[in-house]
């Protein structure tokens, strides 16, 4: 699998330069799916952009999603007629956009599709993520038919979590790429 067929799906507001997604993009040549508006994300727009990128790729991709990017992957999988364009997904720190506080900020993102993904999926979640409880993340993983990794008390698993290049989770990605 070519590095350009590993698609980085940042969450709301994008992923800054010290975020593990940005570090992987620089170190490995993975491709970021750029969205039109990182600050006011619209679910339909983000799904359409992901679909366009996947259809233009020369081979199926592996998705590497963080936060709202996880909900994007689930929503895309639930609606796309082209699930064969993805061979696997690493979903890190899915947010619970059905919570009242998040639903008000991200109104077009609820409900979260919770049905089996048509490709191998791994969910990684923190035990103290302020955007989603560990139990809720486990329920997402179960509904998506995904493997589950508890990253421990690391916050939202973003740049502020101090993960650096995060080799432990990069190994999960490499396994998905080989599958």
In brief:
With 179 residues, the chain is α/β, with parallel strands linked by helices.
List the secondary-structure elements in sequence, H or E: EHEHEHEHEHEH
Largest sheet: 6 strands, parallel
Low-confidence stretches: none
CATH architecture descriptor text:
3-Layer(aba) Sandwich
The total strand number stands at 6
Number of helices: 6
CATH level 3 topology: Rossmann fold
Strand content: 15-25%
Span of the ends, CA to CA: 10 Å
Describe the structure.
Strands 2-1-3-4-5-6 form a six-stranded parallel beta sheet, sandwiched between helices. Helices cover 36% and strands 16% of the residues. The longest helix has 14 residues, at 43-56. α1 links the parallel β1 (6-9) and β2 (31-32). It has one domain (3-178): Rossmann fold, CATH 3.40.50. The protein is α/β, with parallel strands linked by helices. The chain starts with 5 loop residues before the first strand and ends with a helix. It is globular. The protein has helices spanning 20-28, 43-56, 68-79, 100-105, 134-144, 167-178, and strands at 6-9, 31-32, 61-66, 86-92, 120-125, 147-150. The mean pLDDT is 96.
In terms of topology, how is this protein built?
Elements: E1 6-9, H1 20-28, E2 31-32, H2 43-56, E3 61-66, H3 68-79, E4 86-92, H4 100-105, E5 120-125, H5 134-144, E6 147-150, H6 167-178
Parallel strand pairs: 1-2, 1-3, 3-4, 4-5, 5-6
Helix pairs in contact: 2-3
Highlighted features:
alpha/beta, 16% strand, 179 residues
